[in-house]
Amino acid sequence: MSEELLRTPFYEMHLRNGAKMVPFAGYDMPVQYDLGVMKEHLHTRQKAGLFDVSHMGQVVLRGKSYEHTALALERIIPVDVMSLKQGRQRYGFFTNDTGGILDDLMFANRGDHIFMVVNAGCKTQDIAHMRATLEPDVRVKVIENRALLALQGPAAQAVLAEHYPPAADMKFMDVDTIPIAGAECWVSRSGYTGEDGYEISIPMAAAESVAKALVDHDDVEWIGLGARDSLRLEAGLCLYGHDIDPQTSPAQAALTWAIQKSRRSDGARQGGFPGASVILDELKNGTDRTRVGLLPEGRAPMREGVALFANETDTTPIGAITSGGFGPTVNRPVAMGYVPATLAAPDTVLFGEVRKKRLPVRVVSLPFVPSNFKR
Amino acid sequence: MKFTEEHEWLRIEDDLVVVGITEHASTQLGDVVFIELPEEGDTVSKDDEIVVIESVKAASDILAPIDGEIVEVNTLLLDEPSKVNDDPMGDAWFFKIKPDDMSQLDEYMDEAAYNKLIG
Q1: Which residues of chain A lie closer than 8 angstroms to B57, CB-CB?
Q2: Cβ separation of B30 and A37 shorter than 8 Å?
Q3: Interface predicted TM-score (ipTM)
Q4: What CATH number does the domain containing B52 carry?
Q5: Which of A184, A192, A250, B87 shows the greatest Cβ crowding within 10 Å of its Cβ?
Q6: How many domains would you assign to chain A?
Q7: Interval A133-175: pLDDT, tens
Q8: Predicted pLDDT at A207
């Protein structure tokens, strides 16, 4: 790579905490710390983990009013933005003309504006896409002067409540501005691990002091990208560029739950987003292939790219694994992948080809680990 | 004890050679979650890929360091792959090989040279 890797404001802290750094989406990021991936994963599910997600894109969209901004955003995402209440967040994705997914994202109604978090690897393209489609009606402001942390796990509430007791009363997908260690933080009760927790946007100048205030708690450890990946995989959540991409539609990706009734056929604001004809048709009539959970029956992990076969002898694969590895909480290999709709029923046994051997793998419903959100 | 550039250790035990991976290698691999071993009685050639180690991060191979016959494999590792992290230089040996030619070991490093390699 010719370009220099970018650093988040926590770079020095990561090194001091024994992080092993790797290039990720143009940033030098911690893949693990001294605990190692397995213990970091288990610690997050048992207590709380602190994740540096400052590489992700933070964007503010501001039009004449929330409604004005929401209607504009609905032109590029197939999700109900209008009816989202103030102080609430929702999951969504940008689509392209063929119904594929350009990126997935979170957006929040902050009263007079929308706050959005997009994937690190897509943020340049997402921002250009929003500028091209929303401006000048809606101003697209990239937030460059804030860091982003995720505090995840069953102890997250108690940890944050020590700094600001009302944080305990937030429900899953609530957003608020709260003080932590003297800094004005934009906080959502969400994350991407399947655990209860918060995502915390912090003014750059206070980044280190807020991180220190959180990680100094006995129950909190820094957690790297390695465990972040195994946590989201056990939670059955998609990783952009792996489980979803521009060639994969929301219905294929089993993300139709994210498309509210108002945007579907006969809804109050049906269609009107890129790829609507394909996406709405698939919502009605289904798709040829679909994302499923896959549980290897043996102990050998099946990783991304492993070809799936209907039986032990066929020469043509019927699908492939898009995310796979070892699930520390379930203590066995877990995977997700795409299979024909006819082979997507739970308990269907397929075969993954690993080192030229066909190993049995069972279709299962997701997630592998039940989510632990505070509804 | 001898060491290879592939981070294996080789310990001579009578007329057999016991093979495992070094502490350094086990740390680099991360948490080991799956091991595939050769069969007892397999005849192997130097550089054959005969062991698969899967960690939480990735899959890697262990090469046969010498020509010979696999006379024993450590089946304990199949149930407890994490032994490779806990005791890589001791309990977590992979296999015992009966060498065709003991002099093949001569090319490998002693402990001092290996420690220099991993610096």
Answers
A1: 31, 37, 226
A2: yes
A3: 0.89
A4: 2.40.50.100
A5: A250
A6: 2
A7: 999 999 999 999 999 999 999 999 999 999 999 999 999 999 9
A8: 98
